[in-house]
Design goal:
heterodimer, A: 113 residues, mainly beta, six-stranded mixed β-sheet, four-stranded antiparallel β-sheet, 10 strands, 50% strand, B: 117 residues, globular
Protein backbone atom coordinates (compact mmCIF):
# COMPACT_ATOMS: atom_id res chain seq x y z
CA UNK A 1 0.00 0.00 0.00
CA UNK A 2 0.89 3.63 -0.14
CA UNK A 3 1.66 5.15 3.21
CA UNK A 4 1.08 8.87 3.24
CA UNK A 5 2.44 10.07 6.57
CA UNK A 6 0.23 11.47 9.29
CA UNK A 7 -3.06 11.26 7.48
CA UNK A 8 -5.38 8.56 8.78
CA UNK A 9 -8.76 8.75 7.03
CA UNK A 10 -11.84 7.95 9.05
CA UNK A 11 -14.88 6.09 7.85
CA UNK A 12 -18.00 6.42 9.97
CA UNK A 13 -20.51 3.65 9.41
CA UNK A 14 -23.84 2.96 10.99
CA UNK A 15 -24.23 -0.45 12.54
CA UNK A 16 -25.74 -2.86 10.05
CA UNK A 17 -24.61 -0.93 6.99
CA UNK A 18 -21.92 -2.12 4.61
CA UNK A 19 -18.43 -0.61 4.74
CA UNK A 20 -16.07 -0.10 1.85
CA UNK A 21 -12.43 0.67 2.53
CA UNK A 22 -10.11 1.58 -0.30
CA UNK A 23 -6.39 1.28 -0.75
CA UNK A 24 -3.86 2.09 -3.45
CA UNK A 25 -0.56 0.37 -3.98
CA UNK A 26 2.37 1.45 -6.07
CA UNK A 27 4.54 -1.58 -6.73
CA UNK A 28 3.68 -3.17 -10.06
CA UNK A 29 5.62 -6.27 -9.02
CA UNK A 30 3.35 -6.93 -6.05
CA UNK A 31 1.35 -10.09 -6.53
CA UNK A 32 -0.03 -10.74 -3.11
CA UNK A 33 -2.32 -8.52 -1.08
CA UNK A 34 -3.64 -8.72 2.43
CA UNK A 35 -6.08 -6.79 4.57
CA UNK A 36 -5.39 -6.43 8.27
CA UNK A 37 -7.41 -5.12 11.17
CA UNK A 38 -5.60 -3.42 14.02
CA UNK A 39 -7.12 -2.52 17.35
CA UNK A 40 -5.48 0.02 19.60
CA UNK A 41 -2.25 -1.24 21.16
CA UNK A 42 -2.33 -4.57 19.35
CA UNK A 43 -0.62 -6.17 16.41
CA UNK A 44 -2.33 -6.54 13.01
CA UNK A 45 -4.92 -9.27 12.67
CA UNK A 46 -5.32 -11.05 9.33
CA UNK A 47 -8.69 -10.55 7.63
CA UNK A 48 -8.43 -11.76 4.05
CA UNK A 49 -5.93 -12.01 1.24
CA UNK A 50 -5.93 -12.18 -2.53
CA UNK A 51 -3.38 -13.06 -5.17
CA UNK A 52 -2.85 -11.14 -8.37
CA UNK A 53 -4.40 -13.86 -10.51
CA UNK A 54 -7.76 -13.09 -8.93
CA UNK A 55 -9.90 -9.96 -8.86
CA UNK A 56 -12.31 -10.91 -6.12
CA UNK A 57 -12.31 -13.08 -3.07
CA UNK A 58 -14.93 -13.55 -0.41
CA UNK A 59 -14.69 -14.49 3.21
CA UNK A 60 -17.04 -14.39 6.12
CA UNK A 61 -18.78 -10.99 5.85
CA UNK A 62 -15.79 -9.61 3.93
CA UNK A 63 -14.95 -9.29 0.27
CA UNK A 64 -11.70 -8.08 -1.25
CA UNK A 65 -11.58 -6.63 -4.74
CA UNK A 66 -8.38 -6.16 -6.69
CA UNK A 67 -7.97 -3.92 -9.71
CA UNK A 68 -4.45 -4.39 -11.01
CA UNK A 69 -4.94 -1.95 -13.85
CA UNK A 70 -5.20 1.00 -11.50
CA UNK A 71 -3.38 -0.65 -8.59
CA UNK A 72 -6.39 -0.45 -6.33
CA UNK A 73 -7.63 -2.72 -3.58
CA UNK A 74 -10.84 -2.54 -1.60
CA UNK A 75 -12.32 -4.29 1.39
CA UNK A 76 -16.04 -4.60 1.79
CA UNK A 77 -17.49 -5.48 5.17
CA UNK A 78 -21.11 -6.57 5.17
CA UNK A 79 -23.47 -5.70 8.01
CA UNK A 80 -20.85 -3.78 9.96
CA UNK A 81 -20.84 -4.45 13.68
CA UNK A 82 -19.47 -2.44 16.64
CA UNK A 83 -16.68 -4.99 16.93
CA UNK A 84 -15.51 -3.99 13.47
CA UNK A 85 -14.38 -0.60 14.79
CA UNK A 86 -10.62 -0.54 14.27
CA UNK A 87 -7.94 0.65 11.88
CA UNK A 88 -7.76 -1.31 8.64
CA UNK A 89 -4.58 -1.63 6.61
CA UNK A 90 -3.93 -3.10 3.23
CA UNK A 91 -0.51 -4.58 2.61
CA UNK A 92 1.20 -5.88 -0.48
CA UNK A 93 4.06 -8.20 -1.11
CA UNK A 94 5.69 -10.07 -3.94
CA UNK A 95 6.51 -13.73 -4.39
CA UNK A 96 10.23 -13.11 -4.41
CA UNK A 97 10.13 -11.32 -1.06
CA UNK A 98 7.29 -13.10 0.63
CA UNK A 99 6.44 -11.93 4.10
CA UNK A 100 8.02 -8.52 3.55
CA UNK A 101 4.98 -6.28 3.55
CA UNK A 102 4.43 -2.73 2.38
CA UNK A 103 1.53 -1.33 4.37
CA UNK A 104 -0.93 1.29 3.23
CA UNK A 105 -1.81 4.36 5.27
CA UNK A 106 -4.74 2.78 7.06
CA UNK A 107 -8.37 3.74 7.53
CA UNK A 108 -10.01 4.24 10.89
CA UNK A 109 -13.47 2.66 10.86
CA UNK A 110 -15.91 3.91 13.48
CA UNK A 111 -19.17 2.04 13.82
CA UNK A 112 -22.01 4.02 15.31
CA UNK A 113 -25.15 2.47 16.79
CA UNK B 1 -2.79 -21.86 15.21
CA UNK B 2 0.78 -20.68 15.25
CA UNK B 3 1.56 -17.82 17.59
CA UNK B 4 4.22 -15.16 17.69
CA UNK B 5 4.97 -13.87 21.14
CA UNK B 6 6.50 -10.47 21.70
CA UNK B 7 7.98 -9.28 24.98
CA UNK B 8 7.73 -6.90 26.69
CA UNK B 9 4.39 -5.45 25.68
CA UNK B 10 5.29 -2.10 27.14
CA UNK B 11 8.55 -0.56 28.29
CA UNK B 12 9.50 2.84 29.63
CA UNK B 13 13.15 3.78 29.74
CA UNK B 14 15.38 6.76 30.30
CA UNK B 15 17.05 8.51 27.43
CA UNK B 16 20.44 7.01 26.67
CA UNK B 17 19.66 3.50 27.84
CA UNK B 18 19.23 0.43 25.65
CA UNK B 19 16.11 -1.67 25.38
CA UNK B 20 15.79 -5.22 24.09
CA UNK B 21 12.59 -6.53 22.56
CA UNK B 22 12.07 -10.24 21.97
CA UNK B 23 10.05 -11.93 19.26
CA UNK B 24 9.42 -15.65 19.60
CA UNK B 25 7.69 -18.12 17.38
CA UNK B 26 6.00 -20.43 19.85
CA UNK B 27 5.16 -23.54 17.87
CA UNK B 28 7.00 -23.21 14.60
CA UNK B 29 10.47 -22.45 13.35
CA UNK B 30 10.97 -19.12 11.69
CA UNK B 31 14.08 -18.66 9.57
CA UNK B 32 12.93 -15.17 8.75
CA UNK B 33 11.30 -12.57 10.93
CA UNK B 34 10.45 -8.96 10.23
CA UNK B 35 10.54 -5.90 12.45
CA UNK B 36 8.17 -2.96 11.93
CA UNK B 37 7.79 0.38 13.64
CA UNK B 38 4.56 2.26 13.96
CA UNK B 39 4.15 5.84 15.14
CA UNK B 40 0.76 7.06 16.46
CA UNK B 41 -1.91 7.36 13.78
CA UNK B 42 0.51 6.07 11.16
CA UNK B 43 1.08 2.90 9.26
CA UNK B 44 3.54 0.12 9.93
CA UNK B 45 6.94 0.75 8.41
CA UNK B 46 9.29 -2.13 7.78
CA UNK B 47 12.59 -1.64 9.57
CA UNK B 48 14.48 -4.81 8.83
CA UNK B 49 14.40 -8.44 7.85
CA UNK B 50 15.89 -10.73 10.44
CA UNK B 51 17.53 -13.88 9.11
CA UNK B 52 18.45 -16.78 11.35
CA UNK B 53 22.18 -17.27 11.48
CA UNK B 54 23.07 -14.27 9.36
CA UNK B 55 23.02 -10.49 9.41
CA UNK B 56 19.77 -8.62 9.26
CA UNK B 57 18.82 -6.66 6.18
CA UNK B 58 17.85 -3.11 7.00
CA UNK B 59 15.51 -0.86 5.06
CA UNK B 60 16.77 2.40 3.71
CA UNK B 61 17.02 5.03 6.40
CA UNK B 62 17.11 2.62 9.32
CA UNK B 63 20.34 2.82 11.31
CA UNK B 64 21.72 -0.66 11.80
CA UNK B 65 23.96 0.47 14.66
CA UNK B 66 20.99 1.99 16.40
CA UNK B 67 18.63 -0.94 15.98
CA UNK B 68 20.57 -4.12 16.60
CA UNK B 69 18.92 -7.32 15.45
CA UNK B 70 19.97 -10.76 16.51
CA UNK B 71 18.34 -13.93 15.20
CA UNK B 72 20.39 -16.57 16.93
CA UNK B 73 17.83 -19.39 16.85
CA UNK B 74 14.94 -20.51 14.71
CA UNK B 75 12.43 -19.32 17.29
CA UNK B 76 13.87 -16.06 18.56
CA UNK B 77 14.75 -12.71 17.11
CA UNK B 78 15.66 -9.73 19.27
CA UNK B 79 15.63 -6.03 18.49
CA UNK B 80 17.79 -3.82 20.69
CA UNK B 81 17.25 -0.10 20.56
CA UNK B 82 20.60 1.29 21.61
CA UNK B 83 21.04 4.65 23.33
CA UNK B 84 17.33 5.29 23.05
CA UNK B 85 16.06 8.82 22.68
CA UNK B 86 12.52 10.25 22.88
CA UNK B 87 12.19 10.16 19.09
CA UNK B 88 12.60 6.36 19.26
CA UNK B 89 9.35 6.14 21.21
CA UNK B 90 7.10 4.04 19.03
CA UNK B 91 5.17 0.80 18.72
CA UNK B 92 7.45 -1.98 17.53
CA UNK B 93 5.93 -5.08 15.95
CA UNK B 94 7.50 -8.28 14.69
CA UNK B 95 6.19 -10.87 12.30
CA UNK B 96 7.25 -14.36 11.35
CA UNK B 97 6.17 -16.97 8.89
CA UNK B 98 6.25 -20.69 8.52
CA UNK B 99 7.29 -22.19 5.23
CA UNK B 100 4.88 -21.65 2.40
CA UNK B 101 3.28 -18.66 0.73
CA UNK B 102 -0.14 -18.53 2.33
CA UNK B 103 -1.03 -15.52 4.43
CA UNK B 104 -2.46 -17.66 7.18
CA UNK B 105 1.11 -18.68 7.88
CA UNK B 106 2.36 -15.14 8.40
CA UNK B 107 1.88 -14.14 12.00
CA UNK B 108 2.32 -10.89 13.88
CA UNK B 109 3.34 -10.33 17.44
CA UNK B 110 1.21 -8.21 19.72
CA UNK B 111 3.65 -5.32 19.64
CA UNK B 112 5.85 -3.47 22.11
CA UNK B 113 5.12 0.10 23.09
CA UNK B 114 8.41 1.85 23.81
CA UNK B 115 8.36 5.15 25.65
CA UNK B 116 11.67 6.95 26.10
CA UNK B 117 11.69 9.69 28.72
Amino acid sequence: GESVGLHLPTLSVQEGDNSIINCAYSNSASDYFIWYKQESGKGPQFIIDIRSNMDKRQGQRVTVLLNKTVKHLSLQIAATQPGDSAVYFCADSSTDSWGKLQFGAGTQVVVTP
Amino acid sequence: GAVVSQHPSRVICKSGTSVKIECRSLDFQATTMFWYRQFPKQSLMLMATSNEGSKATYEQGVEKDKFLINHASLTLSTLTVTSAHPEDSSFYICSAYTTGGVSEKLFFGSGTQLSVL
